[in-house]
């Protein structure tokens, strides 16, 4: 039955490429027996102002992540002042549509206001003061959405490329214990919520080793880490299929689940040797860095489709260990990669084009699912 349904939906998709989303196979149907499938959504989507975007989300996805609205600077912009109107709408959108709702993110060094780390004179606060601010933030935000936000990225990007701890204000002021504390506060605020550690470039060996050591340490202290989030800000040539495969295996072997949390594939030329996903990196827009502003050549479109199929084959192989695969943004026009690491480019990293039509990458992903059920 499962196989028949999949082949049927796959045939439908192939028979009508680029047709409107409603006549097609849906991602959530083809992956129903494998993992949840989702996207990060922006304000216009959960307020349903972007009608096309909201329709794609409802049609194809059964889990959502908030692109920005639950980051500290958005939800807690000033001391003692929380901004819950938009996050409330985000959560309502997910609950109303029976989705697995993700919170992103409680502890990060980016998109966190400076005041968090400073006293009234602008001097760094003590570890105790920062911990009590962290506690207040987590208990307030996680507590508000208890039972409705199903999983939280508790700590985001705590590691350097070489696997050592990143020297963030959290680490410098509180010490390594900030990670344990953040998980404990989140667990206290909502004991049923799944808690995650989320990072990028964990497919690279040194950083992966650092993450493995960190997760082992947390598990040894009985911290309920449910899953590791592999952000998945991928390139056409990175990570290799073998790296992807080995990374999922390595974390699954620790006894945690693996989530692909921010999947996109950058087709644009690299602006430098830098290959990570640090949001603070920025380069000037140069003409040659924006080669596809009038459209993506067919050959690259096909390369992107093959690349998505290769990655999804790995995800499907590990369906037992993967709980969800979430894209970062919905349509190509929504993607942060139009402005990062170079502002004002035209990027094509997703399965839906600027009009919200499915791309050949979408069909390749559907086909990968259909084929996998025959294996
Ligand atoms: C990005 C958003 O997509 C942008 O809109 C924002 O300006 C910067 O952050 N890793 C993460 C995400 O964990 O929160 C980042 O999102 C992308 C990289």
Word description of this protein:
There is one protein chain. This protein is α/β, with parallel strands linked by helices and 375 residues long. It has one domain (34-298): Glycosidases (TIM Barrel), CATH 3.20.20.80. It is built from 13 helices and nine strands. It has helices spanning 2-15, 27-30, 43-46, 51-60, 72-75, 85-96, 127-144, 169-174, 178-189, 205-220, 241-252, 298-317, 360-372, and strands at residues 36-41, 63-66, 100-107, 151-156, 194-199, 227-230, 233-235, 257-266, 322-327. It has an eight-stranded parallel β-barrel with strand order 1-2-3-4-5-6-8-9, surrounded by five helices. Helix 1 (2-15) packs antiparallel against helix 13, helix 11 runs parallel beside helix 12 (298-317) and helix 12 (298-317) packs parallel to helix 13 (360-372). The longest helix is centred in the C-terminal third of the chain and has 20 residues, at 298-317. The radius of gyration is 20 Å and the shape is globular. The chain starts with a helix and ends with a helix. It binds (3S,4R)-3-hydroxy-2-oxopiperidin-4-yl beta-D-xylopyranoside. (3S,4R)-3-hydroxy-2-oxopiperidin-4-yl beta-D-xylopyranoside (XIL) binds next to loops.
Notable features of this structure?
375 residues, alpha/beta, TIM Barrel, eight-stranded parallel barrel, 13 helices, binds (3S,4R)-3-hydroxy-2-oxopiperidin-4-yl beta-D-xylopyranoside
């Amino acid at each position: 039955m499962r196989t028949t349904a999949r082949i049927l939906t796959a045939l439908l998709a192939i028979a009508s490429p680029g047709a409107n989303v409603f006549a097609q196979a849906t991602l959530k149907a083809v992956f129903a027996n494998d993992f949840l499938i989702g996207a990060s959504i922006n304000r216009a989507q959960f307020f349903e102002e972007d009608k096309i975007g909201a329709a794609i989300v409802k049609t194809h996805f059964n889990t959502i992540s908030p692109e920005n609205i639950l980051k500290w600077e958005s939800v807690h912009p000033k001391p003692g002042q929380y901004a819950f109107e938009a996050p409330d709408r985000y959560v309502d959108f997910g609950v109303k549509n029976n989705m697995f709702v993700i919170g992103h993110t409680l502890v990060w060094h980016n998109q966190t206001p400076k005041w968090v780390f400073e006293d009234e004179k602008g001097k760094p606060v003590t570890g105790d003061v920062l911990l009590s601010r962290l506690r207040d933030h987590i208990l307030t935000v996680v507590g508000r959405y208890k039972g409705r936000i199903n999983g939280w990225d508790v700590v985001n990007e705590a590691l350097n490329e070489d696997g050592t701890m990143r020297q963030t204000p959290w680490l410098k002021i509180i010490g390594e214990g900030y990670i344990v504390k953040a998980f404990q506060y989140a667990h206290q605020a909502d004991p049923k919520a799944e808690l995650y550690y989320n990072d990028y470039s964990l497919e690279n060996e040194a950083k992966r080793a650092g993450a493995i050591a960190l997760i082992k340490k947390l598990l040894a202290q009985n911290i309920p880490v449910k899953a590791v989030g592999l952000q998945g800000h991928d390139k056409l040539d990175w990570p290799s299929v073998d790296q992807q495969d080995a990374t999922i295996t390595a974390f699954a072997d620790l006894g945690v689940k693996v989530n692909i949390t921010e999947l996109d594939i950058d087709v644009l030329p690299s602006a430098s040797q830098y290959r990570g996903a640090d949001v603070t990196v920025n380069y000037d827009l140069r003409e040659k860095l924006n080669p596809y502003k009038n459209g993506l050549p067919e050959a690259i479109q096909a390369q992107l489709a093959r690349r998505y199929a290769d990655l999804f084959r790995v995800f499907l192989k590990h369906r037992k260990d993967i709980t969800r695969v979430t894209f970062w943004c919905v349509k190509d026009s929504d993607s942060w990669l139009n402005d990062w690491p170079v502002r004002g480019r035209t990027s094509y990293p997703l399965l839906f084009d600027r009009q919200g039509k499915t791309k050949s990458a979408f069909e390749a992903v559907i086909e990968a699912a259909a084929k996998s059920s025959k294996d």
